[in-house]
Amino acid sequence: MRVDLAFVGAHGVSAEAGLTTPNIDEGATNTALIRSAARTVVLADHTKWDETGLSRFAALDEVAVLVTDSGLDGSAREAAEAVVGELVVAEVAPGTTETGGRARTTDDTEDAQ
Fold first, then answer.
1. Measured between alpha carbons, how far is 97 from 92 in angstroms, rounded to an integer?
2. If residue 109 lies in a helix (H) or strand (E), which one and from where to where?
């Protein structure tokens, strides 16, 4: 298999451990996908930083682009920028909170009450 561009997610991201997942099979699949890709884009919001799963599937220097959100703190940004090819930071809209992977606005919270 050969792909031009692979998009992968990660359970955990750290400068030391790289990209990790708690699922060994997923780790093996991600490793194979990254090795077959010309470029790899990793999608990982700030809550993934400094989390470490059981299975490491790539080092950060294997990542062409890391897409994260503005919740990533300054030291983590610096660590990522030093290693990955490109760091893309999506701004989190004011008034949103994290709720299981979906941005929730304050309007949503008020509507639920």
1. 9
2. helix 106-112
